[in-house]
Amino acid sequence: xxxxxxxxxxxxxxxxxxxxxxxxxxxxxxxxxxxxxxxxxxxxxxxxxxxxxxxxxxxxxxxxxxxxxxxxxxxxxxxxxxxxxxxxxxxxxxxxxxxxxxxxxxxxxxxxxxxxxxxxxxxxxxxxxxxxxxxxxxxxxxxxxxxxxxxxxxxxxxxxxxxxxxxxxxxxxxxxxxxxxxxxxxxxxxxxxxxxxxxxxxxxxxxxxxxxxxxxxxxxxxxxxxxxxxxxxxxxxxxxxxxxxxxxxxxxxxxxxxxxxxxxxxxxxxxxxxxxxxxxxxxxxxxxxxxxxxxxxxxxxxxxxxxxxxxxxxxxxxxxxxxxxxxxxxxxxxxxxxxxxxxxxxxxxxxxxxxxxxxxxxxxxxxxxxxxxxxxxxxxxxxxxxxxxxxxxxxxxxxxxxxxxxxxxxxxxxxxxxxxxxxxxxxxxxxxxxxxxxxxxxxxxxxxxxxxxxxxxxxxxxxxxxxxxxxxxxxxxxxxxxxxxxxxxxxxxxxxxxxxxxxxxxxxxxxxxxxxxxxxxxxxxxxxxxxxxxxxxxxxxxxxxxxxxxxxxxxxxxxxxxxxxxxxxxxxxxxxxxxxxxxxxxxxxxxxxxxxxxxxxxxxxxxxxxxxxxxxxxxxxxxxxxxxxxxxxxxxxxxxxxxxxxxxxxxxxxxxxxxxxxxxxxxxxxxxxxxxxxxxxxxxxxxxxxxxxxxxxxxxxxxxxxxxxxxxxxxxxxxxxxxxxxxxxxxxxxxxxxxxxxxxxxxxxxxxxxxxxxxxxxxxxxxxxxxxxxxxxxxxxxxxxxxxxxxxxxxxxxxxxxxxxxxxxxxxxxxxxxxxxxxxxxxxxxxxxxxxxxxxxxxxxxxxxxxxxxxxxxxxxxxxxxxxxxxxxxxxxxxxxxxxxxxxxxxxxxxxxxxxxxxxxxxxxxxxxxxxxxxxxxxxxxxxxxxxxxxxxxxxxxxxxxxxxxxxxxxxxxxxxxxxxxxxxxxxxxxxxxxxxxxxxxxxxxxxxxxxxxxxxxxxxxxxxxxxxxxxxxxxxxxxxxxxxxxxxxxxxxxxxxxxxxxxxxxxxxxxxxxxxxxxxxxxxxxxxxxxxxxxxxxxxxxxxxxxxxxxxxxxxxxxxxxxxxxxxxxxxxxxxxxxxxxxxxxxxxxxxxxxxxxxxxxxxxxxxxxxxxxxxxxxxxxxxxxxxxxxxxxxxxxxxxxxxxxxxxxxxxxxxxxxxxxxxxxxxxxxxxxxxxxxxxxxxxxxxxxxxxxxxxxxxxxx
Length: 1248
Fold this sequence. Notes:
Residues 1-484 are annotated as: Disordered. By secondary structure, this protein is of the alpha/beta class.
């Protein structure tokens, strides 16, 4: 059914059209059932709606009567009337249908009703309906008419029922008593019904009435009409007809109460966290649910928007990129009041009134985030169904997507999944319909929701349509954890004072917080970030928790101007002092004994004699009296001058060389790349890297051009003109000259400039289209070998190397393999030639940076082998056009040439007894199990290291790690950079969960997953990510949170954003590509992310979205960011989105003329040129401030971000919406709300 098929624009954003409110039509029940997530319809799942909005965001408007839209492709629509036919399962979304159903939940799972065990408490947020028997439950009384349901729904309250001023559909949160939905009291961790529990059917959405969807752009919400879709799936069906449970997402998690009330309690769980919703009722096999009134949003009060349907994942839910969202549930520390403050800019949403669906699903997951365990918590919200004996399945069940049944059309996997999981702020939102978070409209009168086809028991004929429910309350997305809230809280709490590293095991501020570091014995978080700052004492605890123990190390990170670089220590010819046994370098962890004559190693406990020249007396505390005068005894990071013993062949290295190898085939000349590179290199010769800005660079340079043959150039200073030497025997590459190829720039400047002027002219009329690639790298490698130095090759290449030569490739692009078991072959190199070549390059210290300018498939997976094995970088400019891409390419090239880097590097990580480094991720080569070899290591590259236990650790000594990198500086000096880190150890799981860093955990998960696609199908990779995340959260719930109902989703405070961020990873282009994502782009992103640091991976997976209409030109601060959801965009606003690779300026159709004049120099929306790549320089404070902001954002990232202007309703908007990661994606990725529900279900399954 197209729930939202109609173009969004058809009705005001998100407002139901009259008569076409998304009520389920008769026979056509739009259930937003849990399992019935909206099918991605064309336009609906994110497709473009005719109006130009991806449908997925469109408001959910039910089809008019008789007007059914077909389900999105691949989905079956439920029959309009009659029992739903059973349809084959469709892979509707990522989650198996079993998990989410679009229709009524499969029979297997009992519908969810309120748990019997859970009484309906007025204050609790109950997603379940009034105490009347749950409708639609088979065991309960038959569903009543719509009207009644509506009334019931109205009676259930998530929070206070009175509508809030915010707008129709909002009820102000009641302050007096925390609404149940608000029930999350700070003290209790909010519980969300676990999505994961047994597949149950989502509870009917019955109780929740949702407000009409808000207009997408922030316009006032339309009059509330229940969304039929949104409504629980049960809603419109006749009473007799059981309804499918709402989609899991909707159902499963009750939505959190309005923002104002925290749906989840954040209090630290004193004990086990609260349960999600209450005990799950036993599954009742034939439980059928009556349809809830449509007005109810999916079961979750905050049910996920229909969009989520799309998200259903068939089968296990594939990991999706985590979306960061504020957590609705508060995490650990409970908020002081039950309600959460509304998010900035969003009106507080009242708890859903009357939203009580079955306890589980119907409520958004209650998330309880807890503060440190042990804190008292109020009872979390519980999802309860109507308090009746016959209740639908427990939330857990609800949350579960019912297993798909054979013959059933796949519903969204979890319904809840389908719908976005309630977001932190979503609690009070109706399920997202089509991705629009808005109020859910009630069922339309006269429409019965069609039973979900294929659901047994759901096939009963639709009941008479219920009257439209009272205006449903809007579920508040602000009740699920919000990334923006977490980021802002961290800035407020940790951004003002310096972070001192002297205290062992303290977690640093987030990467999004600006702070100053004072090194007092542990490495700065700019160099090392850990996933956990409290490691489990033994391997059993580590296995139980499943929290990865890893460190993301950026050895040569650039520091801000107010922090001093590592001190350089020179011990003369004797070299650095080291432990005799493990060879660890002298550091603050060494203990001096016997009056200072010997020291005991902190890593292996071996005692070593102190050399006479290094002896110093100890003070009364046992410290050396010169401790604070020696960086290696008092600092976490420092460098040693290496002696000749640390050099290859026992001789000091030559300064490195840069060799520029330029493709001069037809494509490269025609698109302007050759002329541009040659022109820019003339300038860059003055900016080669150097350590002292006052001294000339020691780096030598050489030049090669190539197509099917290679042209070497002699640019010796004594020549009047450069000389070209052609090597056409590419099968046996050699360098035709020694003297004159690598030269000093200052001596040969005139000849070099003459050459760079002549190259574009020489090849201007070329007709050669074929290129080689392997011999090009071989040429550079041979030149470095001949000069006996390390160095870097800058290769500018345009096409697939099909000319006869070593490393020749064929076009193997085959989209039909995507999604199959053979898909992994697309990420693997097609020939082994480049792996062997990479090994030779690393041995010589030859790093390769590749600049690609493809117009078609070039097999990045194979061409990228050498760059990613040598510590190099890949830059890709698809369909390169000089006019629009010149700025980005030249800025990338400048930075790449100028940045500080080390050559011929070897890194080793040593650890204290009890743990060891077992796995490494990044752009490097390893010839053994301990040494990470990097031909080049620059200031942007990270190496991620995973640790495992090999013995027990003690809480007294903690765990120590030392990262030592031996490298050649750009001036030719051999150095050792040492970073030390000590973390605490714990014997209680609660301590582990109190001191983790989610951003680093996600960085590790992404790298692990992106490497796994080389050997496993992407679906398996996504499933394993979801499973590990569920195990982490289930372990916390079981062992650290205070007891609570199973309907609550309880998250640890420091991990409350784990689901949203993980969802972003799961639906990233590498793991779940859309049809328009090329294989080259996927291979490029996979290689790019493998060496990203935590700050870059954070913004890449959860982009920053700034509302420019709130920018104060006079202030130095930025406007408060908003969450990545279309629901947060206002038609009257202009927004800036950045993800580390691109900057988008999105312009709403109703943006104020003054704002447009200040930014674009024209007051008319229609006159804005969407092809502009830079904003005009205007003489007004706003324009100047905006340009400053863009430049400062670009300066923070390692790659220059191209600016793109996206007008609302323009074709480019689909690209922009791809980065609104809290919404459902076109490629089938779940919305945040849906995924949260899915996670809850997974957790409940693990706990049961």
